[in-house]
Amino acid sequence: MSIISDMIKYSRLAFSVRGFLRGTVSLEQSKQVIAARFQNRERTFLSIVQKGIYGNPKSPFLKLLEVANCEFEDIESMVNQDGIESTLHKLLAEGVYLSGEEFKRKREVVRGGNHFQFKERDFDNPFLAGYYQVQSSGSRSAGTRSIFDLRHQLEKSYYTLPMLAANNALDFPMGLWTSIPPCGTGIGSSLRYWKVGKPVARWFSPVDESQVQVSLPHRLALRYIIYGSRLWGAKLVKPEYVSFADAVKVAQWMAATKKQFGGCSLQCSASLTVKVCQAAIENGLDIQGTHFFSGGEPLTEAKHRQIEAAGASVASIYSISEIGRIGCGCSGAGAAGDVHLFHDSVALIQRQRKVEHTDIDVNAFLFTPLLPSAPKILLNVESDDYGVMETLSCGCLFGQLGFDKHLRDIRSFAKLTGSGMTIVGTDFVRILEEVLPRKYGGAATDYQLLEEEDTSGQTHLSLIISPTVGAVDDGAVIATVLSELHRVAYIGKITAELWSQAKMLEIKRMYPISKVGKIMTLHLMKKE
Q1: What one-character DSSP code corresponds to residue 158?
Q2: Among candidates 453, 403, 442, which has minimal Cα distance to 521?
Q3: Which of 95, 248, 266, 448 could make a disulfide contact with 111, Cβ separation 3.0–4.6 Å?
Q4: What are phi and psi of 264, to 5 degrees?
Q5: What's the average pLDDT block by block, 10 residues per block, for the chain (528 residues)?
Q6: Domain extents for the chain?
Q7: According to the model, what pLDDT value does residue 424 have?
Q8: Within the chain, how many helices (H) and strands (E) appear?
Q9: Would you say 147 and 128 are in contact if contact means Cβ atoms under 8 Å apart?
Q10: H/E/C letters for each residue in 329-374?
Q11: Nearest to 386 by CA among 364, 407, 408
């Protein structure tokens, strides 16, 4: 019965794709939509709060607002007087926010003596049709599930042509090296590029369905979207499996495409970008002048240098599945990883907080989506990211459209990132403090994880094991860690497979790093 139900549901999804594919979004239309969003920003925010929170008895934020004795008229008055961001700061001071741990249900929400326990679906946008659900590219506890809504894909598509124009990539073929569902990045990007008249030429996937045991519903959804689109005249490309070790195949495609068309672009993670550039250099392939759009992990200075060494350029894409597209870099970016904040569709404030299992403080990002089609209705929710937010003048198209707020030095304080996949820190704490000591001996403080970057720009995770533990088989320890990652729901299998391909984990026999007399299970390097 469930298979028949899934087939009916995805048949509806395929037919809804027909409406999405009708018509093409132009650059001029994109500019007009963005301008309208800016003009109606406060009105849209108030509408979302009124209908999605005060009009939704299941909304977690309704309960937080009730504790704060805040009525809709109070928010309306504050927004009309001081604007959205000032209002969000005032709400934050009254306890109307969710930390990353609270949002992922790792910690009970306590406000004013009141205790709340929310379910993941409580945050869902009640006005969206839930034909299909995807997962974020990282394993946030049990995985962050979001509705794959075609109206939201359309709203995000209005950034696509400005992104290409701001990076001098409008006239060249585009490729993807992104994962298959349950990750929504690949299929969403494929649809959006088609919508703006720039169909994806090749879609490479670093994982295969059989490797990561993709469930039947996700396999069905992928096929219904691709073949359903073809019924309506959109020849969406199928994903092709290309492992990390075969990065040269992607580099060869880029070199051949550049030779034929004078240029080429590829959207993938920062680590995969470096892999392609290294393969091009090692094999004498000419990808000079090509462009990468990199997301999923920080674009550090070391990675940026490796990309430039191949003669290519790169712009960062900053997205979160629950929110949507948050920002994108341009060809004039002053620092690696700098992005224009798309504050027409998202409001962002910061709060200082201490990072669990470490001894550092960060200015954490708190997001509030401003699109009625956003997968989740959120109000001041942490993403586990932090960084620098500043106002800068830029002559690119993004700057001309009004995107003068920039984010840089974006890092995660609770997730370990590599090869475009992330695992939430608390999931790794369980492995380090419980699983490894039980299997190999020692205490919880004898194991520590350190995120490092080598001279070639590749991210590695060093698993530190104290000499007091005694002799252990390094390969067996790594196999245990990857096996435990497989147990993390949804994206755990994909993360383990990619980390295994990239040889992300290495063992270091040394005493765990200690600061101010404390041994932290996760030693996260704070970037200045």
Answers
A1: T
A2: 442
A3: 95
A4: -170, 150
A5: 60 76 95 98 98 96 97 98 98 96 90 92 84 45 58 95 97 94 85 96 89 76 83 89 91 98 95 89 96 87 87 95 93 88 98 75 93 94 91 95 95 58 57 86 78 68 87 92 76 72 84 50 44
A6: 421-523
A7: 46
A8: 20, 25
A9: yes
A10: CCCCCCCCCCEEECCCCEEEEEEEEECCCCCCEEEEEEEEECCCCC
A11: 364
User: Within 13 Å, how many C-alpha atoms sit on residue 37's CB side?
Assistant: 23
Asked if 264 and 254 count as a contact pair (C-beta separation under 8 A), the reply is yes
Measured CA to CA, the distance from residue 389 to residue 469 in angstroms comes to: 43
Distance CA(146)–CA(125), nearest Å, equals 9
Q: What is the pLDDT of residue 458?
A: 67
Which residue, chain included where needed, has tokens 């109000």?
A: 379
- Joined together, the tokens standing for residue 304 give 């940026």
Q: Which two tokens stand for residue 208?
A: 């295969």
Enumerate residues 6+ apart whose C-beta is below 8 A from 66: none
Positions of E strands within 427-509 = 447-453, 459-465, 505-509
CATH of domain 421-523: 3.30.300
Q: Are 362 and 413 in contact (CB under 8 A)?
A: yes
Helix H or strand E segment including 422: strand 421-424
Q: 61 with 96: CB under 8 angstroms?
A: yes
List CB contacts of 198: < 8 A, sequence separation 6 or more. Answer: 160, 161, 164, 174
Residue 422, pLDDT score: 46
Q: Report the C-alpha gap between 180 and 183 in whole angstroms.
A: 6
Distance CA 376, CA 145 (A): 10
Place of tokens 């001279």: 455
Read off the pTM: 0.80
Query: Quick check: 376 and 309 in contact, CB under 8 A?
Result: no
**β-pair type (505-509, 239-241):** unpaired
Assigned token pair, 58: 């299941």
Q: Which two tokens stand for residue 424?
A: 């939430």
How far is 205 from 237, CA to CA, in rounded Å? 12
Cβ neighbours, 10 Å, residue 461: 18
| Dihedral sign (CA 61, 65, 71, 73) | negative
The pLDDT score that the predictor gives to residue 448 is 81
Structure tokens at 349: 């404030």
